[in-house]
Structure formats: structure tokens, C-alpha cells
Design goal:
Layout (H helix, E strand, L loop, with lengths): L1 E2 L2 E13 L5 E13 L1 E6 L4 E6 L10 H13 L4 E7 L9 H16 L6 H11 L5 H4 L3 E5 L3 E4 L8 E6 L6 H5 L11 H5 L14 H8 L1 H12 L4 E4 L6 E5 L14 E6 L1
Parallel strand pairs: 5-6
Antiparallel strand pairs: 1-4, 2-3, 3-7, 4-6, 7-8, 9-11, 9-12, 10-11
Helix pairs in contact: 1-2, 2-3, 7-8
């Protein structure tokens, strides 16, 4: 079995307040985008986890893919498996690649071994792995609240539009992004904005992390401004950064050939 866990971007990200449990209350819209990692999952006599592509440091047992396998083994006596992750989506980029990988391991194991697990149950299990993980079970545009695990569908269709991602290789830790966060004072919910015309989003649909992250990494603000200057209908930072994206009516040209260390991806929805 070969499957393709996608990246996501956030359309608006309101950080409303810090909860008693230590998490922050969020209001955001997440959408999957056509930029993916690759997962191969096969039956095996013993559990094997292999990782290629962009290398992930640390103990493999702490990788979310391995944690997802262990969780399915615990809950459903999942048979042993060979899992090969080809990592393409950069880490610490606000694109949710690690969360997508974990969610797709859950889905892949369920389908490969015909485990008795509904999508709703998979979302519950995914929430044990990380706040963004449940989103990738349904893998469609959704409003996310709570710490990101309270999901509801939204009326959004970007078919035919283009997205450009720019990642300059800056790694922004989530704890770093939350440090000094200014809680949102927005009067409009994200759903209310994104279900309006796309050309009305600029200046209204905001990511509250931008204030803190742009102050620390001013080059990211320059990238966002450049996407608008070249014709983006809407541009923003995704998640806690550092990827900047723009949405376009027509296919945009590449902008950053002069910076070979930048990751630049252009895709059509």
C-alpha cells in the first residue's frame, strides 16, 4: 500500500485565550493542499520503520508514525507492519506534515488489515497523537476549534485556484510562536470570513501568530508582501510558521530562483 499524506495550510488562525488545561483556544480553517509525503505500508513478520528524504532527528520510537502504529497495535492488536516514510514536507513549517503522516498511518493500517475502526474512532485516536492529527482523517476543509481537534465541515471550494508556498528554511518552534502571543480581538469568526468572497479576505482573515513571528523573523513579512505584490488574492503565514503562502486566480510564476535554499511549491487545487 502506498499513500500520500498531504500538507495543510491555515486560513485564518485566531488565538482566543489560554485555557485552564494549559492549551490555547483556537479558531481556524484548515485545508489540505496538493503537496505530500509518501507512505508505504506492508505486512511484515516484524515491525520495521524506515525513514528517507528529509531526515528527522531523534529516537525513531518518538516519531508520530511509530506512535500511530503502537496505538493501533494496542487498541486493535494490529499485525506487524513495514512502514517507509519518504519525508518531503518540511518540519517546523506550519504545514502539519508530521500530523498528516500519523493520521495516514492510522488510516493505512485500518484499511490494509481491515481493522474494525470507523473514521470517527480514528479521529479520536488521532487526537491522542496531536492536535492537528484528527483533521487529516476526513482530509477536507474544516473549521477547527478547541486546541484544533474540534472539527466541523465548512463551505469552501478553491477548485481551479493556485497556491504558492514559500518556505525559507526557518524552523519556528510552536513554543516560540506562542511566546508573547497577543490574544485575538477579532469580532468575526473565521467561518464567517472564509465563507464570504475570497477577494474580501485580505486584511480581515488574520493569523495571530504573524505579529510575534514576523517581529522575530522580519524576512517572513517581506515574503508575504512580495506575494501580494505579484498578484496573490490572499497571502498569510500557515500555522505557527514559517511557511508563507499565497492563493492566486491564475498560475503564478516562480519568484525565488535566486534563493536556492528556499522551498517554493506551486500547485493547482
Amino acid at each position: 500500500m502506498i499513500i500520500f499524506p498531504p500538507a495543510k495550510v491555515n486560513l485564518g488562525l485566531n488565538v482566543l485565550y489560554k485555557r485552564e488545561d494549559g492549551y490555547h483556544e483556537l479558531d481556524t480553517c484548515m485545508i489540505p493542499i496538493p503537496f505530500t509525503d509518501v507512505l508505504e505500508i506492508l505486512p511484515s513478520n516484524d515491525f520495521v520503520f524506515k525513514q528517507t528524504g528529509l531526515m528527522i532527528d531523534g529516537n525513531p520510537e518518538k516519531n508520530l508514525c511509530v506512535k500511530a502504529f503502537r496505538l493501533m497495535q494496542e487498541k486493535y492488536s494490529c499485525p506487524e507492519a513495514y512502514i517507509h516514510l519518504r519525508k518531503i514536507i518540511p518540519m517546523g513549517a506550519g504545514l502539519g506534515g508530521g500530523s498528516a503522516d500519523a493520521a495516514y498511518v492510522l488510516k493505512g493500517l485500518r484499511d490494509l488489515f481491515s481493522l474494525p475502526c470507523s473514521d470517527l474512532k480514528l479521529e479520536e485516536l488521532a487526537a491522542e497523537l496531536g492536535s492537528d492529527c484528527p483533521f487529516f482523517i476526513a482530509n477536507k476543509a474544516q473549521i477547527a476549534k478547541g486546541r484544533g481537534e474540534n472539527l466541523s465541515p465548512c463551505d469552501l471550494d478553491l477548485a481551479g485556484y493556485y497556491i504558492k508556498l514559500i518556505n525559507p528554511g526557518v524552523h519556528v518552534a510552536t513554543t516560540e510562536a506562542y511566546a508573547g502571543i497577543e490574544f485575538s480581538m477579532h469580532t468575526m469568526a473565521v467561518r464567517e470570513i472564509i465563507e464570504g468572497p475570497l477577494n474580501s479576505w485580505k486584511g480581515v482573515l488574520k493569523n495571530d501568530f504573524e505579529t510575534t513571528v514576523f517581529r522575530r523573523y522580519p524576512a517572513l513579512k517581506v515574503l508575504k508582501d512580495q506575494l501580494y505584490a505579484e498578484g496573490a488574492i490572499y497571502a498569510a503565514m500557515s500555522g505557527s510558521g514559517s511557511t508563507i503562502f499565497g492563493i492566486y486566480q491564475d498560475e503564478p510564476a516562480a519568484s525565488f530562483e535566486q534563493f536556492p535554499d528556499y522551498l517554493e511549491i506551486i500547485r493547482k487545487f
